[in-house]
Amino acid sequence: MVEPMKLPASKLQSPPNSQAATPSPVILLVEDESMVREVTSEVLQLAGYHVLQSSGPEEALRVAKEHEGQIGLLLTDVIMPGMNGADLAHHLQVMQPDLITVFMSGYAENDVLRNMRRQSVIHIQKPFTVDVLLSRVAEALGADATTRPNTNLSGLSA
What's the rounded mean pLDDT across residues 16-28? Predict the structure, then answer.
Protein backbone atom coordinates (compact mmCIF):
# COMPACT_ATOMS: atom_id res chain seq x y z
CA MET A 1 0.00 0.00 0.00
CA VAL A 2 1.20 3.54 -0.74
CA GLU A 3 1.98 5.50 2.39
CA PRO A 4 -0.08 8.68 2.84
CA MET A 5 2.01 11.78 2.32
CA LYS A 6 1.58 15.46 3.03
CA LEU A 7 1.53 17.44 -0.22
CA PRO A 8 2.59 21.10 -0.16
CA ALA A 9 -0.19 23.50 -1.18
CA SER A 10 2.15 25.14 -3.71
CA LYS A 11 2.42 21.84 -5.60
CA LEU A 12 -1.36 21.64 -5.87
CA GLN A 13 -1.84 25.13 -7.30
CA SER A 14 0.29 24.97 -10.44
CA PRO A 15 0.97 21.84 -12.47
CA PRO A 16 4.73 21.22 -12.70
CA ASN A 17 4.47 20.39 -16.41
CA SER A 18 2.61 23.57 -17.36
CA GLN A 19 5.38 24.80 -19.69
CA ALA A 20 5.51 21.59 -21.73
CA ALA A 21 4.77 21.96 -25.45
CA THR A 22 3.15 18.55 -25.76
CA PRO A 23 0.36 17.34 -23.49
CA SER A 24 1.18 14.45 -21.20
CA PRO A 25 -0.53 11.10 -21.78
CA VAL A 26 -3.84 10.36 -20.12
CA ILE A 27 -3.58 7.63 -17.48
CA LEU A 28 -6.58 5.53 -16.47
CA LEU A 29 -5.93 4.51 -12.86
CA VAL A 30 -7.99 1.53 -11.64
CA GLU A 31 -7.60 0.71 -7.95
CA ASP A 32 -10.26 -0.57 -5.56
CA GLU A 33 -8.51 0.70 -2.40
CA SER A 34 -9.52 4.36 -2.13
CA MET A 35 -6.44 5.57 -0.21
CA VAL A 36 -4.05 3.93 -2.66
CA ARG A 37 -6.05 5.32 -5.61
CA GLU A 38 -6.16 8.88 -4.23
CA VAL A 39 -2.46 9.07 -3.31
CA THR A 40 -1.35 7.45 -6.58
CA SER A 41 -3.53 9.81 -8.57
CA GLU A 42 -2.21 12.85 -6.74
CA VAL A 43 1.42 11.81 -7.30
CA LEU A 44 0.79 11.26 -11.02
CA GLN A 45 -1.01 14.59 -11.35
CA LEU A 46 1.79 16.42 -9.55
CA ALA A 47 4.20 14.83 -12.03
CA GLY A 48 2.21 16.38 -14.87
CA TYR A 49 0.02 13.48 -16.00
CA HIS A 50 -3.73 13.76 -16.62
CA VAL A 51 -5.40 11.03 -14.54
CA LEU A 52 -8.82 9.43 -14.89
CA GLN A 53 -9.73 7.47 -11.75
CA SER A 54 -11.82 4.36 -11.33
CA SER A 55 -12.56 2.23 -8.28
CA GLY A 56 -13.12 -0.95 -10.28
CA PRO A 57 -13.18 -2.66 -13.67
CA GLU A 58 -16.81 -1.95 -14.62
CA GLU A 59 -16.43 1.72 -13.83
CA ALA A 60 -13.12 1.78 -15.76
CA LEU A 61 -14.83 0.42 -18.87
CA ARG A 62 -17.49 3.12 -18.57
CA VAL A 63 -14.92 5.88 -18.00
CA ALA A 64 -12.91 4.71 -21.04
CA LYS A 65 -16.03 4.70 -23.25
CA GLU A 66 -17.04 8.18 -22.10
CA HIS A 67 -13.56 9.69 -22.40
CA GLU A 68 -13.04 11.65 -25.59
CA GLY A 69 -9.57 11.07 -26.92
CA GLN A 70 -6.88 8.51 -26.44
CA ILE A 71 -5.93 6.95 -23.11
CA GLY A 72 -2.18 6.43 -23.17
CA LEU A 73 -1.76 4.16 -20.17
CA LEU A 74 -3.83 1.84 -18.02
CA LEU A 75 -2.45 1.61 -14.47
CA THR A 76 -4.47 -1.13 -12.82
CA ASP A 77 -4.53 -3.33 -9.77
CA VAL A 78 -4.30 -7.02 -10.64
CA ILE A 79 -6.77 -8.46 -8.13
CA MET A 80 -10.13 -6.68 -7.94
CA PRO A 81 -13.74 -7.72 -7.35
CA GLY A 82 -15.58 -8.78 -10.50
CA MET A 83 -12.72 -8.84 -13.00
CA ASN A 84 -8.95 -9.05 -12.71
CA GLY A 85 -6.58 -6.46 -14.15
CA ALA A 86 -5.43 -8.67 -17.03
CA ASP A 87 -9.01 -9.19 -18.23
CA LEU A 88 -9.73 -5.48 -17.87
CA ALA A 89 -6.64 -4.66 -19.94
CA HIS A 90 -7.82 -7.06 -22.64
CA HIS A 91 -11.29 -5.43 -22.80
CA LEU A 92 -9.80 -1.94 -22.96
CA GLN A 93 -7.27 -2.93 -25.64
CA VAL A 94 -10.16 -4.01 -27.85
CA MET A 95 -11.40 -0.40 -27.57
CA GLN A 96 -7.92 1.15 -27.84
CA PRO A 97 -5.39 -1.26 -29.38
CA ASP A 98 -2.36 0.94 -28.60
CA LEU A 99 -3.17 1.09 -24.88
CA ILE A 100 -0.16 0.39 -22.67
CA THR A 101 -0.76 -1.36 -19.34
CA VAL A 102 1.12 -1.30 -16.04
CA PHE A 103 -0.09 -3.75 -13.40
CA MET A 104 0.05 -3.14 -9.63
CA SER A 105 -0.25 -5.89 -7.05
CA GLY A 106 0.22 -6.43 -3.36
CA TYR A 107 0.22 -10.19 -3.82
CA ALA A 108 3.56 -11.92 -4.28
CA GLU A 109 2.11 -14.98 -6.01
CA ASN A 110 -1.18 -15.88 -7.58
CA ASP A 111 -2.32 -17.46 -10.85
CA VAL A 112 -2.85 -14.14 -12.65
CA LEU A 113 0.62 -12.87 -11.73
CA ARG A 114 2.29 -16.16 -12.72
CA ASN A 115 0.66 -16.00 -16.15
CA MET A 116 1.59 -12.33 -16.55
CA ARG A 117 5.24 -12.98 -15.68
CA ARG A 118 5.47 -15.30 -18.67
CA GLN A 119 4.66 -12.32 -20.86
CA SER A 120 6.56 -9.07 -21.14
CA VAL A 121 4.58 -6.87 -18.76
CA ILE A 122 5.44 -4.00 -16.48
CA HIS A 123 4.51 -4.68 -12.88
CA ILE A 124 4.70 -2.57 -9.73
CA GLN A 125 4.80 -4.43 -6.43
CA LYS A 126 2.81 -2.81 -3.60
CA PRO A 127 3.80 -1.09 -1.46
CA PHE A 128 5.75 1.12 -3.86
CA THR A 129 7.56 4.42 -3.60
CA VAL A 130 6.93 7.60 -5.58
CA ASP A 131 10.17 7.02 -7.50
CA VAL A 132 9.21 3.45 -8.47
CA LEU A 133 5.74 4.54 -9.57
CA LEU A 134 7.00 7.39 -11.74
CA SER A 135 9.87 5.43 -13.25
CA ARG A 136 7.62 2.48 -14.18
CA VAL A 137 5.05 4.79 -15.74
CA ALA A 138 7.77 6.60 -17.71
CA GLU A 139 9.27 3.24 -18.74
CA ALA A 140 5.91 2.01 -19.96
CA LEU A 141 5.33 5.16 -21.96
CA GLY A 142 8.79 4.88 -23.49
CA ALA A 143 9.78 8.26 -22.12
CA ASP A 144 13.28 9.22 -21.18
CA ALA A 145 14.25 11.91 -18.71
CA THR A 146 14.02 14.64 -21.37
CA THR A 147 10.53 13.80 -22.64
CA ARG A 148 8.57 12.61 -19.62
CA PRO A 149 6.59 14.96 -17.38
CA ASN A 150 8.29 16.55 -14.41
CA THR A 151 9.20 13.90 -11.86
CA ASN A 152 10.99 16.28 -9.49
CA LEU A 153 8.47 16.24 -6.68
CA SER A 154 10.51 17.91 -3.97
CA GLY A 155 8.57 17.90 -0.77
CA LEU A 156 7.24 14.37 -1.35
CA SER A 157 8.87 11.49 0.43
CA ALA A 158 10.08 8.88 -2.01
Answer: 67
